[in-house]
Design goal:
This protein has 270 residues and is mainly alpha-helical. The chain has helices at residues 2-5, 12-41, 50-55, 59-68, 88-106, 113-124, 126-156, 159-172, 180-197, 200-220, 230-237, 242-263.
């Protein structure tokens, strides 16, 4: 089964089907089923192990990919090779800087109170929340969005279209419009890195750094509200320095992008 999961190179229409399985069959179907079962058992649905509640809705999409994939691939690798490890600190710095400089735009759409309460309940289960947020989510989402969807679109469309569509799907599958801008911009960077490096491992690392930073800021600063921003964090530890740090990160992001754009070369389906 695992081998076939690496062979699927979907067209754009097939990508929409994968997203349908993720959102409708998995997110709504499996999610509703879990809620009904919890209600029948008298259990609060938000108290379910976060890893279980995260993985189960993804299974229908994995099954679709498995049964839709040919038995043999086209000879291209999904990209488990890590690539040049010397670039990894730059990847980490870039994704953190990107999150910082796009935060003012994302903050225009704050999460409602009920969503913040859900995030807070999830974070209370710290060990499983860590495994889900920093390990499982980067692996599964990068496999689906970069390793399957973008990799397929790179074969069927242009690199620009592949990166844009995979970023759009990345934002959509979060089922959280208040995180859509951040997810889309992070998806653009992840998609660009995948196209440039052909390394799914690099994308998983970047995704883990992004999620891990948010997780540890919240964990180590319990006085901050759930869903806190970088501004909240800096206002508490470095009052008055937010826009100075913002400008520094903006220049850092631009410098890293220009450097990587020169050093990395796209090789996937070119």
């Amino acid at each position: 089964m695992l081998k076939r999961l690496f062979n699927h190179l979907p067209s754009l229409n097939q990508c929409w089907v994968i997203v349908f399985f993720l959102i409708v069959v998995g997110g709504l179907g499996v999610g509703t089923l879990l809620t009904v079962i919890c209600g029948y058992l008298g259990v609060d649905a938000t108290s379910i192990n976060p890893l279980l509640s995260y993985v189960l809705p993804i299974i229908p999409a994995l099954l679709y990919i498995h049964f839709s994939a040919p038995e043999t691939g086209d000879g291209t690798s999904i990209g488990f090779r890590p690539g040049k490890l010397a670039y990894y600190p730059l990847y980490a710095a870039a994704i953190l800087a990107l999150g910082f400089v796009t935060e003012p735009l994302s903050s225009l759409f704050p999460m409602p109170e009920y969503m913040l309460e859900i995030f807070e309940k999830i974070l209370n289960n710290s060990i499983w929340a860590f495994i889900t947020t920093v390990v499982a989510a980067p692996i599964l989402e990068e496999y689906l969005l970069r390793g399957v969807i973008e990799r397929g679109l790179l074969k069927h469309t242009t690199p620009l279209q592949a990166i844009l569509w995979s970023s759009f799907f990345f934002a959509v599958i979060h089922l959280n419009p208040w995180q859509a801008i951040g997810a889309f911009t992070a998806g653009l960077f992840l998609g660009w890195i995948y196209w440039k490096t052909r390394s799914l491992t690099a994308c998983i690392f970047i995704h883990a750094v992004n999620n891990g930073t948010a997780y540890f800021i919240q964990l180590l600063n319990p006085e901050l509200p759930a869903g806190c921003t970088y501004k909240d964090f800096l206002d508490m530890h470095m009052p008055g320095c937010y826009w100075i740090v913002f400008v520094i990160f903006a220049f850092l992001l631009a410098a890293i992008f220009l450097y990587l754009n020169k050093r990395l070369t796209g090789t996937l389906y070119e």
